[in-house]
Amino acid sequence: MALEIIESCVNCRACVTLCPNKAIYAAAPHFLIERDKCTECVGDFAEAQCVAICPIEGAILDELGVEMNPPGSLTGIPPERWAAARAEIASR
Amino acid sequence: MSDAIRARVQDHPCYSEEAHHYFARMHVAVAPACNIQCHYCNRKYDCANESRPGVVSELLTPDQAVKKTLAVAATIPQMTVLGIAGPGDPLANPAQTFDTFRQLAAKAPDIKLCVSTNGLALPEHIDELAKHNIDHVTITINCVDPDVGARIYPWIFWQNRRIRGREAAAILIEQQQKGLEMLVARGILVKVNSVLIPGVNDEHLKEVSRIVKAKGAFLHNVMPLIAEAKHGTFYGVMGQRSPSPAELKNLQDACEGDMNMMRHCRQCRADAVGLLGEDRGDEFTMDKIEAMDIDYEAAMAVRAELRAKVTAELAAKRARIHAEPAPQVIQFMPRVEPQKPVGRPVLMAVAAKNGAVAVHFGHAREFLVYEASADGARLVGHRRADAYCSGDDSCGDGESVLDRTIRALVGCETVLCSRIGIEPWGKLEAAGIQPNGEHAMEPIEEAVMAVWNEMLAGGKLDARPSAAKCA
To answer: ipTM of this predicted complex?
Structure first.
């Protein structure tokens, strides 16, 4: 049982000090989680702490590759709305 | 303003309008983590051409931040203030924030330290702030009603949980108000920033202003929402509009009766360097700083000298104004006072530097907007001449810089500058804005009032502005 940080991480570092297992470490190009140390905070907190503070949708996955903060869940922007805005900007 | 307060803000460009003409500030980006999400912020964004809070180009360690601050203070002797404002929340990065403050208090004791926060973690860090001699704290308070807050903040991180909606806003508001009270109780000057979001908190901000004033905040800074789809923020993508300059001014005027309102804020980046309205950050990237050879002691002496000079000049200016003798009228017979001709207020844009009409129209990157009336000239805002991006055609929509500048000056009847070319002169006139280059190098207030008195004498101030183009 372990979480994973992927490349959309912006290195804001908010998760690092919260991890009860000190499993998160700075690396290039982004922070990483040591698999062996991560417990997903079970026994320590009701919610995985990195997941609970991460501001970037999709930056943390569970073992099955499921996005812990799926698109739209943090910003409130419906994914289709964001896709349309990006397409409109790209076409300018 | 009392003399005691004046002494504490007289060289702080963000707390004193007078000071902002002469003194510079810088922000160091040591605080990337945040404990809340705001609908006007996108945590992914950095564009070097963009100037708005929450955006930075280069994140620094506390040691790098200290080095950068000392380098800037040695190069720009007007630098009086070091602030930490993000790009996240300084108090969500307490180790980095306080390490930076601790080192700077020892190495550059003449530099004022200040911090800008969303307030969520303020109560728990209040003693640490007081200990580091932080004399100025800015709290961003957009609401005092959780129902309003639920439309501004999608979530907060609080006591190891992500909390959403109204509950989140209620906690944030409670901590902000508690933090404000605790700061005031410790004698720390508090500025409150509010983002004006049309249809969300516009009317509500009048209540915010009353409440923070009653609790002892010193200054209220209502800023316009910046929201464009390309920023990738909730408000930008969802089409929330920004307020017009007139809407912003009306709200600031409505709050003014109860509260000192800040009108000269430039909504700078979390790594801005220089006078308000200019950003010299490019001159101080870490690789350039490494190559600099700096005599810190000598730099501090130069700063002290400059500060004393400007302070003396400003004191002399104030004394001059107070010393003007009241006109002595000796009346032998009772007579009816002639009706004093009262002209309507006029908005004037000024291409200014160091408190004077000193910039060529074509070189101005921003204009200060003054309202001139029978009561004198007062700063009511500023307009950017190059929008938020410059020098990059991909950001524009084919409109020329001149057209954009003229559009930015909407509502102004006159623009004062040191010089101006023939082409912009004609275009400005066609847009109903009278260019004026006759007051080059004069102090702003004197120049503005000279133009207003001329308009008054010319009978131009009896009716509404003639230009239908003015919004």
So the answer is: 0.95
